[in-house]
Structure formats: structure tokens, C-alpha cells
């Protein structure tokens, strides 16, 4: 049975059919269906799940969708669900929730779970401390491999992961880590300190969650140990949580690069008003910025009146310059996100992009010259070709360096990416075009 049939079952209020559909589909498919529906239908379907599958489905949902489900549940089921959540998942949920909802969740928790959740909420949003799991199994440096494996068997069910195990001294200070594979394959009489990877870095609670997540990606590990200011182990960031952080960061960057404000929740469940609100603010700002282009056209009105044919090539030059700048900006934002660029690389990036822009501009200018010479005069074709080269160099430099400059002053690089760069290049590109045209045509 496909998802279209589920829609028919819901519309027909066929409870038995809905239960069959929910039973036949895996948790991630069910979670996607709940996320795309309104609160009433989502809660109805969730209540039809058996207890074990309900928890698995709930864990697959985004925080905003988890909140939607929880708000429609009775107190007993509500308490069971929030108690069963991992502390880090619970902290992420509450970090985006209203105060009233947060109080209800905390009031329904056992003292131990409430204490762990409150500790995570004490860290600043966006840091590793907020999303780490405090349920971590540490190994004392003097333990033998045999003792360590016994400890893993005994305490493994209580913690987030057993595949990466921090090694600590008697003061719980981080010394390195060992993997479960290494323990299983090692001599039982060896000590864990002999196996520990002492040169592998951990993360501090105040570090950026995105930076820590990308560090896991670079190190190819299943978990990253989290330490406090005194280098004591306080938690662990697992690879599944890291992937969610990277996905959220990339989603936000894509939204900002397209000139919209990021929204929460499933696209199909977000209201039309919310989607419009996320876009209109940026479009208004870009309209204001686009008035620069109008001002430039007015300033060079006399030039256009003398050689009307110049106007025919404005879309070509403006469009090419904007696209060239957007390409460079997108590359720079991505390189910043994955750590390939730093804010101090501005001059090197400007020089690099200027050469890229020159090569691209020359290639495009050859085509543009032939076209312009065919439909206009040779002198206008020269003006268009030269303008195209200069505009491509300028646009690539602006697009490549603006995200780095933004990061240096504390602004999200994605904010000053494609749409803003395109608008800026449009106005400045026209100035370049008209100045070159005046010089070539002698007007």
C-alpha cells in the first residue's frame, strides 16, 4: 500500500486500514507521513501505533514535528515519550519550544532525566554542549582489556554509544579513546591506556556544534568525546547527531543562498503564509538594493540616448555578471562550511577568483563579440567584449570574497551569498559597461 492509499484511509476514517498501513511501513516512512500532515491527523495516526513502533517513529521526527505530536497527547503517554527520549534529543526539542511546553516536559521527567536535560539546556544554543549526550561510558587508564569489556557489558545498555570509549585518568580528565573493535581484538591483559589514541582531538562544550560535526566527518570516527574547560569528559557527540547538525546547517545555507529565511518543519506541513513570510523580507531588501541599478541607468541616460543599441546588451552583461558572482559566492560559502577556507584567506581568494574570472570572461567575450558584431557595430562589439571580461573578473572577486569578509565580522556567510552578490554586481556591472562604452565609442 502506498502513501496515496493512506490519504484515502484518513479521509475515509478507516481506522483498521490505517493501522494496517502503519504496521506495514518502516518508522522513517511513517515519520515522513506524520510530518507532512496537520496536527490533528498526525496525532490520530500516531495514537494508532503500537508502543515500540511509536517510539521509533517519534525518534525519526524533527523537533518541530515532535512538539506537534506531544501537544496532542494525554499526560500519561506524553510523560512516557519524553522520559524515553535521549537527553540530547530532549534538549534539542526544548531549545526550540515555547516556555509553557518546556515546563510541561520538565515536570513530567524523572529527577535523573530532568537533571541531565537541564544541564544540557544550560549550554548556549549552537554549541556542542547543547547537543551532546551526557550518557557516556568512560574507561579508567589502568583497566585491563578484560575489565573494560566486562564494564561495557554491564553498563553498555545505559549509555549512548559503546563503539568509541573515552579513556580518562583518576580525575576523569581525557587522555584519548579506544574503539570497541580494538578492545575485542586486543590481548585481554593489556591496559586500555596502551591502546588509547592519545593524539586524537576532542571537542569542548563551548565549541560550535557544526565545527564539531564536521570534525567527526574529517576524522571518520563514530563519536567525538566532549570535555569541559578542565578537560574532564562530560559527554559524547555521536555520528548520527553530527549528521543531523550538518544537514541542518546545509539546509540553512541553501535557504539563505536562495534569498529566504530558513523555516522549521516539513515543507508540505508549513503554511503558505509562513513560506511567503520567509521569502518576502529578503525580496523587499533585494528590491531596495536593486534601486542602485535604476540609479545607474539614470546617471548614464545621456549615453544611452546617444547610442541606443547599448541598451540591447544590458541583460546579457548583467545576467552574466550576476551568475559569475553567484558561482563564486556559492563556492566560497561551501568551502568555508567544510573548513577549506578561513576568513584570513581574503586576499588569496580575491587573486584566485580574479584569474578564474579572467579566463571565463575571455571565453565568453569571444562569443559575445561575434554576436554583437553581427547585430550591431564592431565598436559596440568591442565595448561589450571588454565589459564582459572586466565584469566577470569583478563579479568573481566580489562573490568569492564577500562571504569571507562577512564571516570575519560575525555575519553568516550564506547571508551575503548569491542574491545579494548578484544585485551588487548588477549595479556595478552597469557602471563598468557604460564607462568602457564611453571610452571605446568616444562619447
Automatic annotation (TrEMBL):
Keyword Cell membrane: yes
GO molecular function, one term: magnesium ion transmembrane transporter activity
Tagged with keyword Transport: yes
CBS domain mapped to chain residues: 132-194, 196-254
InterPro entries on file: CBS_dom (IPR000644), CBS_dom_sf (IPR046342), Mg_transptr_MgtE_intracell_dom (IPR006668), MgtE_N_sf (IPR038076), MgtE_transporter (IPR006669), SLC41_membr_dom (IPR006667), SLC41_membr_dom_sf (IPR036739)
Keywords: CBS domain, Cell membrane, Magnesium, Membrane, Metal-binding, Transmembrane, Transmembrane helix, Transport
Gene Ontology cellular component terms for the protein in this record: plasma membrane
Domain of life: Bacteria
SUPFAM superfamilies listed in its UniProt record: CBS-domain pair, MgtE membrane domain-like, MgtE N-terminal domain-like
Membrane topology: Multi-pass membrane protein
Task of the protein: Acts as a magnesium transporter.
Subunit text: Homodimer.
UniProt similarity note: Belongs to the SLC41A transporter family.
Protein's recorded name: Magnesium transporter MgtE
Amino acid at each position: 500500500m502506498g502513501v496515496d492509499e493512506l490519504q484515502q484511509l484518513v479521509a475515509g476514517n478507516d481506522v483498521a486500514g490505517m493501522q494496517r498501513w502503519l504496521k506495514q511501513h518502516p518508522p522513517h516512512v511513517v515519520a515522513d507521513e506524520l510530518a507532512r500532515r496537520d496536527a490533528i491527523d498526525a496525532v490520530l495516526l500516531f495514537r494508532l501505533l503500537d508502543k515500540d513502533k511509536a517510539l521509533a517513529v517519534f525518534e525519526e521526527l524533527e523537533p518541530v514535528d515532535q512538539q506537534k505530536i506531544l501537544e496532542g497527547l494525554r499526560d500519561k503517554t506524553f510523560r512516557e515519550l519524553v522520559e524515553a527520549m535521549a537527553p540530547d534529543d530532549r534538549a534539542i526539542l526544548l531549545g526550540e519550544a515555547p516556555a509553557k511546553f518546556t515546563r510541561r516536559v520538565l515536570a513530567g521527567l524523572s529527577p535523573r532525566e530532568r537533571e541531565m536535560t537541564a544541564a544540557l539546556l544550560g549550554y548556549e544554543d549552537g554549541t556542542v554542549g547543547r547537543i551532546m549526550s551526557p550518557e557516556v561510558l568512560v574507561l579508567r587508564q589502568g583497566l585491563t582489556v578484560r575489565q573494560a569489556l566486562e564494564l561495557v557489558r554491564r553498563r553498555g545498555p545505559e549509555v549512548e554509544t559503546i563503539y568509541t570509549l573515552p579513556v580518562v585518568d583518576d580525575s576523569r580528565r581525557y587522555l584519548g579513546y579506544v574503539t570497541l573493535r580494538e578492545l575485542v581484538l586486543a590481548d585481554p591483559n593489556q591496559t586500555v591506556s596502551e591502546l588509547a589514541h592519545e593524539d586524537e582531538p576532542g571537542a569542548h562544550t563551548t565549541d560550535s556544534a557544526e565545527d564539531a560535526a564536521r570534525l567527526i566527518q574529517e576524522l571518520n570516527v563514530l563519536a567525538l568525546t566532549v570535555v569541559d574547560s578542565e578537560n574532564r569528559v562530560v559527554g559524547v557527540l555521536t555520528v548520527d547527531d553530527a549528521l543531523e547538525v550538518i544537514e541542518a546547517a546545509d539546509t540553512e545555507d541553501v535557504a539563505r543562498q536562495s534569498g529566504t529565511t530558513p523555516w522549521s518543519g516539513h515543507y508540505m506541513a508549513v503554511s503558505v503564509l509562513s513560506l511567503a513570510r520567509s521569502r518576502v523580507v529578503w525580496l523587499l531588501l533585494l528590491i531596495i538594493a536593486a534601486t542602485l541599478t535604476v540609479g545607474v541607468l539614470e546617471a548614464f541616460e545621456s549615453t544611452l540616448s546617444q547610442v541606443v543599441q547599448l541598451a540591447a546588451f544590458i541583460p546579457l552583461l548583467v545576467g552574466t555578471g550576476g551568475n559569475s558572482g553567484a558561482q563564486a559566492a556559492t563556492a566560497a560559502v561551501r568551502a568555508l562550511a567544510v573548513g577549506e577556507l578561513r576568513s584570513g584567506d581574503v586576499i588569496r581568494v580575491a587573486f584566485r577568483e580574479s584569474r578564474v574570472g579572467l579566463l571565463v570572461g575571455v571565453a565568453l567575450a569571444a562569443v559575445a563579440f561575434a554576436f554583437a558584431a553581427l547585430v550591431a557595430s564592431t565598436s559596440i562589439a568591442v565595448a561589450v567584449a571588454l565589459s564582459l571580461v572586466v565584469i566577470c573578473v569583478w563579479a568573481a572577486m566580489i562573490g568569492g570574497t564577500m562571504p569571507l569578509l562577512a564571516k570575519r565580522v560575525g555575519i553568516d556567510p550564506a547571508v551575503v551569498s548569491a542574491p545579494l552578490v548578484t544585485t551588487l554586481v548588477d549595479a556595478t556591472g552597469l557602471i563598468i559597461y557604460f564607462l568602457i562604452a564611453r571610452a571605446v565609442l568616444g562619447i
